Amino acid sequence: MSSSAAKPPIIPLPEVTRLSPAVIRILGGNPGKFTLQGTNTYLVGTGPQRLLIDSGAGERSWISALQRTLAEEKAHLSAAIITHWHHDHTGGIRHLLDWNSNIKVYKNQPTYLPGHHGSPVSLEQIGTETLLPIEDGQEFSVEGATLKAVHTPGHTVDHMVLHLAEEDALFTGDNVLGHGTAVYEDLGTYLDSLERMRGLFKGKGYPGHGPVVEDGPAKIVEYIRHRQQREEQVIETLRAFTAKEDDGDGWTPMELVKIIYQGVPETLHIPAAGGVTQILHKLRKEGKVTTAGGGDRWRLIDRSAL
Hints:
The protein is of the alpha/beta class. It contains eight helices and 14 strands. It has helices at about 60-75, 85-90, 95-100, 125, 185-200, 215-245, 255-260, 270-285; strands at about 15-20, 25, 40-45, 50-55, 75-80, 105, 130, 140, 145-150, 160-165, 170-175, 205, 290, 300.
């Protein structure tokens, strides 16, 4: 799922698109501020059996498009692989199993489905006994496609990416998107996963939202640099505040946002403050900043460097 920060204009995408001989993208039918053109799901393989990556948000239009595409391809599903627990990627599992209860559905940490954005996923509806675990390094194969699953937490604790050997491409889930930047639960863990992903492939990135990323590794480098720049801005802003005046008990994330994000509409300041807070928590783990009295006011630890 994308960040709400400013992004390039969103280019409309067709509901179903063949992206390569082995990859067909089927949109989830759930466009929006955070989901961009909608959640990308992918039909992978070239023969009578195919693999499905993610299941959208549970829109009826999605399951209809999937069924139609499989009929046109004269193929059926061997298995569905879920990249992570968020509702816009798991919501269609129930439709899949209602359609064909024999479909094998794989997900890292199968019982970890806490729900998302007011749309809880019912374990009873899905039937977790039908969800099979994914191990780091596990492979899934059909004619024309071999996928290797790699655990890359950060966006969520259960997040997996999938390397497509035949194209040296990577299904990046929500760790890397086709537009803008991604949100994450833990910045340090997320950056570690980006570094791991960077070395997995040399080709395209097939993201969880947005268009295909033509140079996947370059996009990951761009993501890492962007996060590093934001971190440097937070440190420099704290340093400037402390050098110019008595910082008292420190500065809140929102006070930092109002300096770092000058010129950005105030409607984006609240989500920006969430990102700044993640940076501050990472810096605290590294011993670079601290809070006053356990509150939400932050300051540099190494004041001698001012």
